[in-house]
Design goal:
Number of strands: 0
Largest sheet: none
Structural class: mainly alpha
Radius of gyration: 23 Å
Oligomer: single chain
Helix content: over 70%
Strand content: under 5%
Number of helices: 20
Distance between the termini: 62 Å
Amino acid sequence: MWRWANYVLVPAYTVRAVARGRPIGNNSDLYPEWITAREVLLQKKTPYSPELTREIQKGFYGRELDEKNPADPKDLQAFVYPLYVIFLLAPTVTLQFGTAVQIFRIILLFCAAGCVPLWIYAIRFNHTRRFTVFLVILTISTFPVILEDRQQNLSALVVLLLAGAFAARAHRWFILSGFLLALSTIKPQLSCFLIAWMFLMVLAKWKELHKIAWGFSATFLGLLTAATAISPHWPRGFWMAVTKYMSYGLGPAIFRVMLPPVFAFPAIVLLVLFVGFICWRCRKEQPETLSYAGSLAAVVTATVALTTQAAHYQLLLFPALLFLLNSKKTVVKPNFLLGVLTKGTFACLFWQWEAALVLALRSVFTQHVPVPMLAELPLWTSPAFPVLTLSAVVVSVSWMQLNKLNQSVTSLQETHLD
């Protein structure tokens, strides 16, 4: 996978970008956050300003974008994170950007690998150490992780924070869980649904889990206070930047791509209602139960389905895959449709590795760069992967709830007969 990305995909993308006249700079998603942290902390500049956006474009694209040039990208690459993300970048602002990139490439790779044992512990997945190592190797060999390495997006870090929060909740380290949840708000579109679900569980079991709320509140308030002390009007600038970003930055959600507009909105509403119902039913479940894992899987798949098709967001789907593996004996086998969807989900992953192996071997014997369509062969199943994962999780969770309902009815009938 890594050889395919470095020796096949990247050269093919470079050839296409040059042919289209697309400007090429550092192409690092870390750059908007890093340059903002440097300019705000060292030069006291205003974040979210047009001047800072132009400076970001000069680094990311190599020059400012020209709105009149149809070949120029529509993604402005403006700073659209909450301002307190600059505290994370603060130790690197005095370094050269190239050095900061190398540091974060290592950090993000370890974040992606670290998510695996944390999610496994969060849902008490039965496993061996050898199996965990196997999953770590497979995880860092997926395209979302490779994309994180190439672009240094912070999604892997946020997923690690979320995995750590749910692992801490399972270990009963409740203040740490709230602390990590608050830090994950540096990328709110990735963490908001999981935070909402955690707080639903906290409200349902307040006496046991109330420290999560205090840990989250204290940390989040501290982040807001520190950011406001640096730039008092940053919330307004952040809101305006996000509003503008939604028109150019976020790719279309799965439903908008696969369904006509007349069906997309009802499908989104049904998914939100379904996930809300599942979370309500499972709000008092313990982490070691399959129902808890199913509700977590439902939330993460809904997050990916309702936000964007960006590949690095698919890192969040790992607990859903664990749930499907964990439920294969009790849920998958009796359900033919679920078996087909589950096998299709994992087939998408294996297709990536198999196709990448073929192209990587080809690159050993020839330096000829294939056309982008052929270079993207391992990615052909990437759009189907989150769709199949979502479908498998929805069917699996629904099947579990129906079985629970049938058991409850049977129990009531037996009680009535007695």
